[in-house]
Specification:
A hairpin with a 5-residue loop joins β2 and β3. The radius of gyration is 12 Å and the shape is globular. It has three helices and three strands, in the order βααββα. The protein starts with 7 loop residues before the first strand and ends with a helix. It has helices at about 10-20, 20-30, 50-64, and strands at about 10, 35-40, 45. It is of the alpha+beta class.
């Protein structure tokens, strides 16, 4: 089964997409590196493009 990642991700999908844990995702959100918004029900939704940018930066750091 292929995973589908829309432009806006729930916390679980964001963690799976970026292969990071909950604490790391919350840290990125609080620092402003990953934008999010809160639904009427109080759930956070994260912007996939910001997660892509974070992953690219992390990759470039590892490559030196």
């Amino acid at each position: 089964m292929k995973d589908y990642y829309p432009m806006i991700l729930s916390r679980t999908k964001a963690m799976l997409f970026a292969s990071i844990g909950r604490r790391e995702l919350e840290k990125l959100a609080k620092s402003g590196r990953v934008r999010y918004f809160t639904t009427n029900g109080g759930h956070r939704r994260f912007v996939r493009a910001d997660l892509n940018r974070y992953l690219n930066e992390k990759l470039q750091e590892q490559q030196g």
